[in-house]
Structures
1.
Amino acid sequence: MSEDRSDAEARFRRAYLEHYRAILAYALRRGVDHASAEEIVAETFAVLWRRRDDAPDPDALLPWLYGVVARVLANHRRRAARRERLSSRLQTLMPEHPETESVAFDRLEVRTVIDALQQLSAGDREVLLLAAWEGLSHREIAAALGCSDNAAAIRLHRARNRLTEVCRKKNTRTRHKEAEGSSDHCGHDEGIR
């Protein structure tokens, strides 16, 4: 029995050392601060330890961990949203300051894509980020999402199409507003039209 436990601990230690950085990067790239990302990583590996008998072989472990960290992150965001609602009841909201916006977001293309991503469903965002940021193949995305390879490929294709469409619409609206701004200097409110 102690040999089984020591083998399990050794496998867990190897998995942790091999995949810690990827799981931390996953959380950080989804806009979580470093301290929260560390907590999310710890919780993800706690799930791995508790479910070590259900975990896949080492070759398929990383996509499985991405599925776990996605659920842990969703729980983290729900808790954060509850805290934010409580905080907003207790304080008046400060106005946003555009000067605090990151320099990287000053580029219209980046801002357009980020805005478009926010308009997509959580499922579409997740499949796109698994492919783009995590660099997963269809098979790995399937493992992370708990679906077939074919379903993952279809979901990714459809999510890309929806992202492209949202970006196209945003670009069309932006060009239309710019054209209106250059021809109409009367200060009409757009909501009145």
2.
Amino acid sequence: MKKKLAIMIVSLAVGVLAQAAERRAPKKHPDSAQWPSLFKADLSDAVFPKGVWTVSDGVLTASKDEAIWAKKDYENFVLDLEFKNASGTNSGVIVYCSDMKEWIPNSVEIQIADDFAKQWAESPPTWHCAAIFGRKAPTKSVVKKPGEWNRMTIACKRRGSRSCSTGNWSPTST
């Protein structure tokens, strides 16, 4: 079964990496300054609908709600990313997927959402930002208001069954 990593967010700083994960999510963000990017600046190592995703000044942006997938398969990894929500955002990072065409029932998603928007604030906790969507709520809400940069570190390690954690992440100013 193939596992794919997809990024489905409106704005994502490209400084991300998939690399060997620790047993638990890091207590602090890792120093990812020397990590290679998940996607090349020309997006030649990504799968996405033509004309939707672009990179400008190191920021990955979508013009509409479509996934971008890594061509390479990842199983155990740490992903460190920055994102900025728009008002009402409902997005996420697909960390494991066995079917890219029917990904919703065949994947694990780390939620990225505007928890300040009424529809998401009043949704089940497993739909809030940093949740393992529909499975595990975040321990606390620390997402910043729309328009501000956030930072999230996701660690995934296979231990009998798939295991992912957003751990103790917190937004940062960038």
3.
Amino acid sequence: MRFPAFFDAVPGIVLHDPLAEFLGATEGGLIEYRYVDAVRLAGHSCPTVAAAWGMTRRALAALYPDGTPQRGAIRADFRADRLSGVTGVIASVVTLITGATLDSGFKGIAGRFDRRKLMYFVADIADEIRFTRLDTGAAVDVRAELQGIPFAPETQALLQKCLVGRASAGEAATFRDCWQARVRSVLLEHGDDPGVFPVRPVTAR
């Protein structure tokens, strides 16, 4: 199988997973997730999947400026309901990376490594997602502002032709290129852009 070449250029996210270390899944419990892992999970690459990746990467970098993020030790709160819009897609990517789940995750071993009750929805927060470290209580809010990263002008018309089966092979290929070009821009040109992925530390109340 072949993925778009730019997938390999997207910065990965390295985490330490105590459960993986405990069970010998990876040496030292270190796991690197790549954007292609999120694509495999979602079954597609789109601005929503890219936004989920970007928000999570930016938030974890802010929470762990001098260390490795700890998978299974991060809580994620969403402002929206999990059935609202694309929240479910974003949440699935957050689960992939952080291990956090609402109630369907790993139940733990002898009281350790429980991944449940680490994800919540309809939270009273101003931004899209709040990530919180369980060890220190440090938290950041993050959102994605993709409005300033438009699709190529011809994308919408080509999309409609593809949906009704009237696009030629060349037009379908052009549509796919236009679609992934915006994803590429989100991840590579704006992946560290605070205007696109603003991260705000949460002060204790």
